[in-house]
Each structure stands twice: as C-alpha cells, then as structure tokens.
Queue: 4 jobs
Job 1
Amino acid sequence: MEELPNCPKCQSAYTYEDGNLLVCPECAHEWSSSDNEDENGDDQKVVKDANGNVLQDGDSVTVIKDLKVKGTSSVIKIGTKVKNIRLVEGDHDIDCKIDDFGAMKLKSEFVKKI
C-alpha cells in the first residue's frame, strides 16, 4: 500500500485520496498529489490581473470597472490608480490604500497592472 504524504498545512498523517486530490480530514485542506511532488508543500498562490499578468507586492494597478463600495454610496471609478499593493489570501486578494477612500481590499479580476 502506498504511503500518502502528510498535510502541508497542519502536518496531519491522516490524509486520504479523493479522486485526483489529497484531503486532510483534520483541517480540510485539499491539494493535488502533483503539487506535493513539485513543491514539497511550499505552495505559493499566483495572483493574476484581468489581462493575465502576474501581480506582486508593491506593484501599481488600475481599476478597470466602476466598483461599488459595500456599505456606502461611494464608487471607485474606472481608471483609479492604486500604488503599492499587497497580496493577501482570500477572495479579495489585493490589500491597498486608495486616495480619498482609505484602506480597501480588491479582487484581482477587476484591476490591470500598470
């Protein structure tokens, strides 16, 4: 019987296969077995803008769509420039500070790299 690798997130030994994925029942982390062979659990998420350019911390981006600010009647207009972004985990994967709005989180699909 093939021994499965430990979970890269919590190091649990109780991983199991589910189709092409490996699953940890303790922390619910899922990953593919090819990821484990290539990177040894050191998975870095690649964040891309609307045009497919890879984004990195410190990049400058432009908003490509009018974005409503949740909880207010404000709108971030198309063409708004955002400098010195920071990439974070989650659905809204860009953390930034926008002039006249303050600190915000944006989705990478609504920006393009300058």
Note: The chain has two domains: 1-44, 47-113.
Job 2
Amino acid sequence: MIIASLLMLFAQEGEEAAAGAPGGNALTPLFIVALFMLFLMLVVFPAQSRRQRREQEKLMASLKRGSKVLTNAGIVGIVVSIRDGDDEIVIRSEDSRLRIKKSVVVQILGSDEAEASKKD
C-alpha cells in the first residue's frame, strides 16, 4: 500500500519534471536510497538473523563434557556437566563452578577432558 502510493507520487513528479525543467527530478536519488533501505530491511537483515540463529543452535548442539568454552561475558571455562534437554550447563573456571545458560556460550575453544574430570 505504501509502496504503491510512493510509486504513484514518484510517477506524477517525474511527469511534471519532464514537462517543466530539463534538470530532472530532485527527489530521484532520495527515492532510490529509500527503496534500497526497504530492500535491506525486508530481505538482507532477516536472512542474517536466521543464519546467526542456525550457527548458535549448531554451537549449542556441539557442546560436550570437557569442551573449553568462552561466554559472552568473557569467562573461559571447561564444561563439567551437561544434560540433554536442559538449557543450563556447569562450567569450571579456575577454582569456581558456574551454572550458565547454553545460549551465553559464544565460542568453543577446544577440548580438555582431563580438566573436566578434576575434582574441587
């Protein structure tokens, strides 16, 4: 609806500019930029969001006991326990045990099974 009215307005102004001034329409670059922004909002940004969501789900599925992980808060730890169907994991960082959500893990740094089995 909005796009159709903008196209009609653009066509009317284009006719007036072609009949009147040889310089053309001053709003043409603005209209092209507006169409480009609309394209970005409707096509590109949702596609990026879906791709990021798939990557995060793949990362959470690959978590296992002994994985060295980095959280979005900058905490580096080793996964001590993880249960299927649960959205929380327990990590060990230095002398602390932390229970965190799987969704805060941003990167898997490697695997260290010996550290995961270490008792406090």
Note: The mean pLDDT is 81.
Job 3
Amino acid sequence: MSYPACPQCQSTLTYHDGVQLVCPECAHEWQEGDGATVEDTLVVKDANGTLLQDGDTVVLIKDLKVKGSSLVIKQGTKVKGIRLQEGDHNIACKIDGSGMDLKSEFVKKAS
C-alpha cells in the first residue's frame, strides 16, 4: 500500500499509525487529507528574525547553563535537526545525545 509523501520533508517513507500518518525521517504527524496542521502554522524565528523550520541546523549565540546541572553549552555549538514545538522553549533538539529544549531567541540559523 502506498501512502502520500510527507508534507514537511517530502519523504516517501511515510506509514499509517492507527489514526494518522507519520514520517520516520522528520517525525511529522498529520491526518490524511489535512491541508494544514498546528505544526504548519507554528511560526518560530531565531535571534535575527529568520524563520525556522523542523530539521534546520542552528548555532547557539551565547553560553547556556543547563538547568539542574553544572553543564554549560558553549556559544557556537551547532545543533542539527531541530523540531519546533509550542511553548516558551520552542525548539526541541539533541545536544551530545541528550534531549533538550531551547528558546529560539538564543540561536541563529546556520548558513
């Protein structure tokens, strides 16, 4: 059975997960036949006002302390494959294998 390509990243590896379609490459989920979802209307901009999208690569513009730890993520750290989300910390990502949430005001889109 063939499913439609992912509207986010155009991957053809999509699959049906009960009530929705899922993309294993970018983790985008949508209802079959949906034109727009909440994720499609989510607008997140970096510190320079550049629009960010799921899967983008960003660079930290200042040192950030990790809450509940003595770890500091240094300015200039490159973060690949971000996911946008609702809330104050509107970027979900992995840094050194650990899942973290960042505020978009502390990153810039990598060129």
Note: Residues 25 and 83 are 12 Å apart (CA to CA).
Job 4
Amino acid sequence: MGIFSRFFGKKSESKQIGNSIIANPDIDSPVGLTIVFKGALDINNDKLLTQLKSIDPTIKDIRYEMPFGQLEEGICLLVSWGKHVIRIYGLNAPYPKDVLELCVTPANYGQEIKQQIYESDSHLLLYYVGYEQDVLEQYLALTHLAACFEQFNALAVINEDAHTSLPVNFINALASENDGLTTLVACLPLLFCGFVKYEIENIKGIWMRTYGANKFGLPNFAALANSYEESDYYFDMFSNILNYLRQSKATMNPGDTMEIGDNRMMSLRAPKDDEYFLKDQGDLLVIEIN
C-alpha cells in the first residue's frame, strides 16, 4: 500500500491494513488544533507517547507512524489509539501572524505569554482523521495529544476556527487532572467555540459573539452589549445555550423567544443586512434582551 493512502486515507480502505494506520477517508473537513513552539521543532515521538499514556493510563494501544520517514525539515506523523487517528504536520516556521493576532489578542490570559506566542518560531498542525463521530470527542482527543507537547517547548494551543487559544501549560494541567478536560466540555467558549469582543465604528456598544460552533452543527451567537463589563454575563449565556443545544439536540431559529428571568425575554434574529461583520461560515443568531 502506498504512503499517500496510509496518510490521507483511501475510500476502499478500512482503519488498518496489517499494522498500518489508515486515516479515515470519509472526513472531508477535519477539526484541528495548532501548537506553536519556542525554537525549532525537536519532538521525540517515544517520549510523546509515553506522556500521553501518563496523562491517560487507560490508553493501551497508542502508536505512531512516519509515512514519509524522517524529514530534514518539519514533521509528518500519524498517531493512533482506540478509534482515534491524528495527522500531524510540523514546520520550522512561524505560524501566520494574522492568524495569531486573530486567536491570541481576544484571549483572556497574560500579555507576557501572548508576546511569547507572537514571537514563536515553529508550529504543528493537528487534524482529527479517526473514526470517532462525536465532534466533541474528536476535539478532546486532539487536546489530550496537544497537552503532551509542553515538554518540547510548546507555548500555546490555537483553534483558528474558534478564534481562540490557551497556553499549553494550562491545557496540560487540565489534562493531567482526573476529568480535568471536562472544564473545556462544560465551557465550550474556552477553546472549542471561541468568545470574541469587538467594537464597530459608529455603533454604540460592544459586540460579543462565538466562533466555531458550526463545527458542532450549531449556530454561533452574538449580542450587542452595553459595555465590556457584561463580558462574563454573555460568556456564561453563550456557553449555557451551546451546551443545551449540543446535549438536547434541540434547535433555535430566528423569531424564537425565551424567558430568562427577572421579567426579561430573550429573542433571536438573523443578522441584518448592514451587520456584515457578523456574517461568516455557518449560521449565526443575534440575541436581543427585552
């Protein structure tokens, strides 16, 4: 079997042929995370797998393959355990500056680590190409593996689709705790559905919105807040709504209303024609509170 079939998958192939790891050929648009590093990539694959086993002792069958062999520059790697297959590309080059600014600037951690991330030297791209159907479980598999790169001078985990990021030491700390990653499950806007605030010229107030919910088959949400002081309120609201929709399989549509306490009603609408800044991939619902 050719190395391209092993790395990218082939419609006629199953997960494994012999001992080879086969990427799922039915995934056309995989979810992914990026890890940025200080200095050149210096990854020891055996230590990487040992760390993953240490984080989750229930993993028994983890292994890796290098479909293109050892490369002089960069990394190509397949990592597999259970249902999961993760494709890794690594480059000894900085991650695009505009994407870093998009994902790091709105993040809620210190300026010192943000500056280190802006000055990072190399990066890995992790894509889920396994056989788990639940998108959240796919993200959790990626996050488990991402946590293991702290030992190799990793700085942060970036989710470009969600416009968000977290320091890798925070990710590793969560992953190393018993059920620690449930924090990311219970609060999707932390990493998987980012929470962004921004001002628009000639509009009074602060727009707050999510990104990346479309990966879960959910709408993103936005609201025009009065000030930045309402950030926690809308962060919690978006998080609760997204969790409710994901768990219940319910739907929300323009025109829906909901009572939210204190004699207040929440109504949903589609973005207006002049709200071009809210329009991107997937559906978005604007929340208005009366």
Note: The mean pLDDT is 89.
